[in-house]
Amino acid sequence: VLSVGPESISNWISCRGQRQLEPRRFFQGRSDIPLNETGRERARAVERRLANLSVSKVMVSPLKRAMETATLAFPNSSALIQVERDLIECDFGSLEGKHIKDAMNEYCITRKEQLAEILPTYGELWSAVLKRYKALLAKIAALQRFGPTVVLVGHDAVLQGI
């Protein structure tokens, strides 16, 4: 969950709900896998931590896990929740479902920061991800006329790209 204020982006809380594959550390991009119970509890914890935050809009990825996080974190704000296609996770192509360490070994990389360099061309290139997020930031700037705080509910690549 990322909160965007009128002057800058501020990270109120960097928390995402846990998914079914997460404990094993697999690439999970556009696979529409729901949250597990730990993820649901994390989303409820976001609700408790942000209870006093004045929110003008909650922009959420169309994937189930993000939608569920948004509805649990902002249960009384359903009218403010808006699906935003540009928040969808990176398309990892042939890496989807592959264990991260296996991919690192296969491509001879040693740091997770290098993963963006190995995204397959028939997936989504990191430059395309960054272009999407730049467009998203422009949308957010336009939305701020409605109020001071826009909340983003997305995925790992969202936080890295922004």
Provide the descriptors you would attach to this structure in a database record.
alpha/beta, Rossmann fold, single chain, PGM_Phosphatase, His_Pase_superF_clade-1, 162 residues, 5-stranded mixed β-sheet
Describe the overall structure:
One of its GO terms (cellular component) is cytoplasm. One of its GO terms (molecular function) is phosphatase activity. Helices cover 33% and strands 10% of the residues. The protein is α/β, with parallel strands linked by helices and 162 residues long. The chain has one domain (2-161): Rossmann fold (3-Layer(aba) Sandwich). It has a 5-stranded mixed beta sheet. β1 and β2 (9-10) form a beta hairpin. It starts with a strand and ends with a helix.
Q: Class by helix and strand content?
A: alpha/beta
Q: Quick one: CATH class?
A: Alpha Beta
The tally of beta strands, per DSSP, is 5
Query: What is the rounded Rg?
Result: 16 Å
CATH topology, what is it called? Rossmann fold
Profile the largest sheet: 5 strands, mixed
Overall number of structural domains: 1
CATH architectural label: 3-Layer(aba) Sandwich
Mean pLDDT, nearest integer?
83
Shape: globular
- Measured by DSSP, the beta-strand proportion falls in 5-15%
Q: Give the helix level as a range of percent.
A: 25-40%
Strand and helix order:
EEHEHEHHEH
Helix count equals 5
Strand arrangement across the biggest beta sheet: 2-1-5-3-4
Query: What is the CATH homology-level superfamily?
Result: Phosphoglycerate mutase-like
Straight-line distance between termini: 12 Å
* Contiguous uncertain segments of 5+ residues: 8-15
